[in-house]
Amino acid sequence: MANFIWTGTDRLGRRTVEEVAAGTIEESKAMLVAEGYTDLELKCDEIMDATGAGFADKISVFGKEVEVETSPEEQLKYMGNLSQTTLGQICQRVVQDWMFYLLLIALLSITVLLGQTDIAILVGIVGISWTAFRIWMALPEIYYTKLNKARDWHQWTKVLKLVKRAEAIQRMHFINAPETELKRFRAMALAGSGKLAEALEEFRGCENRPGVPSWLYKAFLAELYGIAKERDKSLEYSWKAVEEKPTPSLYIDLVDRLLYYNKDTIKAREVLGEIEEGTLIEIGRPFYMRCRGRLAYLEGDYTSARQKLEASLEIMEQKKNLPLMEGNINATKGYLCCVLARQGKMAMAKRYFAQAETYLIATEETELMEECKKLLGL
Fold first, then answer.
1. Do residue 268 and residue 362 come from a single domain?
2. In a domain, 367, yes or no
3. Which of 92-96, 167-171, 333-337 is the least confident region?
4. pLDDT tens-digit series, residues 131-166
């Protein structure tokens, strides 16, 4: 069973957020349809629910255990307001406390006008102390964002350093990422640094721990093997993950590998046929469209390929504040470059390539780079 989060319109025409416990996405959707909901859009699937289970439901604050409860509405609001910069995350917290800061500014102005220097200094200290506390509270999120950024750009040495810092912060903080998540980051960095055996050993004990059910463990192994450029093993574990948990997000990952590793359009089309668009998680939609676009490109249907890749890119750019989206935007621009060049739209193709080139070089996307350059005559 998993907890699926949907948005939809109820019988009274109200737009609501609903959390449904069910065995599959299809079952959860059927339950809501039976209650009269329409315009349903999936926001949280099995993967998000499983990874969320790795976070503690209780935290210790000054020696006292406090239960952590987050409503579906709060989860969606948080996901929609993520910032990918440290300054942005700090500013978000200042904005959240705007009434407090407004009051402080008013008090500070009054005390300065009245010549009450001691009180003005005290008010200033309170403001600085509260800001410092809010930044300290944000440290786990700040470092998690830094980790995702470094991972997205394959900066594996930086990932290892950030994991160490994150672990040090966790020893003095009550808001912590799951241990398995930090192990996964370290394993990815080791795999990307040519130390696959160490990476597998690092992550080996994580299977079936909170946040890493067996099927998700296999999906993560596929990712590790992919980073290490062990394509056959990556595909093997991607198939195993899908066999154990046939869900749209894992199907999309499998199609991505089939197209990227082997250009296997026949199997890719078969797997895509298993996905019902109405059961796609919202964040998975641009990746589904990109897979469709890449498949059309390999099959020589450049008009369809361009249409689907442009639709994918548009959604990705709307969600560029989400983790790992920057890299996916650049990769999609690389694919679009190839399509446009095939259509003879050389100026547009060159523009997309120029925007994606730095990322493609940094992440050693050699095959895509070579195809872009070949088609552009570079």
1. yes
2. yes
3. 92-96
4. 888 877 777 788 888 999 999 999 999 999 999 998
With contact defined as beta carbons under 8 Å apart, do 315 and 286 qualify? yes
* Residue-range definition of the domain harbouring residue 119: 82-162
Q: Are residues 61 and 112 in the same domain?
A: no
Beta carbons of 375 and 334 less than 8 angstroms apart:
no
Count of domains forming the chain:
4
* Cβ count near 104 (within 10 Å): 18
Whether 64 has a pLDDT exceeding 80, the answer reads no
Domain assignment present for residue 251? The answer is no
User: CA-CA distance, 62 to 79, in Å (whole number)?
Assistant: 28
Length in residues, the chain: 378
Which amino acid, one-letter code, is at 88?
G
213-251 in b/e burial notation, b at 16+ Cβ within 10 A? bebbbbbbbbbbbbbbebeebbbebbbbbbebbebbbbb
Q: Which helix (H) or strand (E) holds 39?
A: strand 38-44
User: How far is 274 from 128, CA to CA, in rounded Å?
Assistant: 55
Check residue 260 and report its DSSP letter.
I
> Tokens representing 26?
């299809």
